[in-house]
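help with this:

***
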Amino acid sequence: YRITQSTIFAVCTIRIKFINKKTSNLFLFINTYRTFAIKDRIMKKIIKILGTGCPKCKKTIELVENVVAENNFDAEVIKVDDIMDIMKYDVLSTPAVVVDEQVMIKGRVPKREEIVGLLLF
């Protein structure tokens, strides 16, 4: 959700118009809308780690699970080790990290900061 200057201006205008009346309903609406917008952006992420069981794959799984646990992200980590399922993602080198069905990292162990960045946005 993008808040533009016109949106802020409209909210300020409404507040000024109702300054002499009760504005609690208006603020309730704005706060409710903001809560829904935040909840909509922070949906549960599905993280798939594609790998056949090599040491790099195991390290990636451990790293992703630790980052999710440490930062209390609402995410589900799934290990995919079937070669046919891995080929569906058009990945030639493992490990690979898939977030919400998009391949984000492939062929290397990601850094902790990268994983946090992927899960925040």
Notes: The two ends are 13 Å apart (CA to CA). Residues 24-41 form the longest helix (18 residues).
